[in-house]
Amino acid sequence: MLRGRAGTEGSRRATAGYHAGCAPCRAALVFAEVGLDAASVEAICERTGFTRGAFYSNFETKDALMLALIERVAGEKIDEVAERVAVLQARGEDLEPGALVCQLQDVAFEKKQGILLTSEIRTRAMRDPRLAET
Fold first, then answer.
1. For residues 134 and 71, is the Cβ–Cβ distance under 8 A?
2. How far apart are CA 114 and CA 90, in angstroms?
3. Where the record puts its DNA-binding region(s) (predicted)?
4. Cβ contacts of residue 98 below 8 Å, gap of 6+?
5. What is the pTM of this model?
6. In terms of C-beta density within 10 A (0-12 exposed, 13-18 middle, 19 or more buried), how is residue 83 classed?
7. Contact at 8 Å (CB) between 15 and 2?
């Protein structure tokens, strides 16, 4: 589930774009492969099937798309962790913080593209205070 930042035009457009067939999922691959700065709108459009006009009607900028991705990825990770904790609790497993981290570690580190996208998100957030707030 995408969790948008309420009240901003960019987030409303980003949220609307996310629900249009998961184009941001395909755009995430472009960001993971080459990074946000090197990803051209043309490359994103080619991967997502958007025309340039469709891209800009859904996202004001590449940064707005990246913000939608950040919100989506963070929401998915929170949901995955909550589900995993519920399973561990149901099994009666040790929920001491150290043991819990060991049980949840694979949620954060999965496929190569996920690792690359997460690295790109973290790097971007360190450079852009707006993204760091997300």
1. yes
2. 28
3. 40-59
4. none
5. 0.63
6. exposed
7. yes
C-alpha to C-alpha distance for 113 and 69, rounded to whole angstroms: 13
Q: What interhelical angle do 41-48 and 62-91 show, nearest 10?
A: 50
Chain mean position to CA 119: 11
Mean pLDDT across the chain: 76
Scanning the chain, the segments in alpha helix (DSSP H) are 9-18, 23-34, 41-48, 52-58, 62-91, 97-108, 112-127, 129-132
Instruction: Decide if 99 contacts 48 (C-beta within 8 A).
Output: no
Instruction: Say yes or no: domain 9-132 is CATH 1.10.357.10.
Output: yes
Write the CB contacts of 71 (distance below 8 Å, at least 6 apart in sequence): 2, 3, 4, 5, 11, 14, 134
- Per the CB < 8 A criterion, the answer to whether 121 and 70 are in contact is yes
Each residue of 2-58: pLDDT tens digit? 333 333 344 333 333 333 347 778 888 898 889 888 999 999 999 999 999 999 998
Q: Output Rg (C-alpha) for the chain, integer angstroms.
A: 16
The rounded distance, in Å, linking the Cα atoms of 134 and 117 is: 15
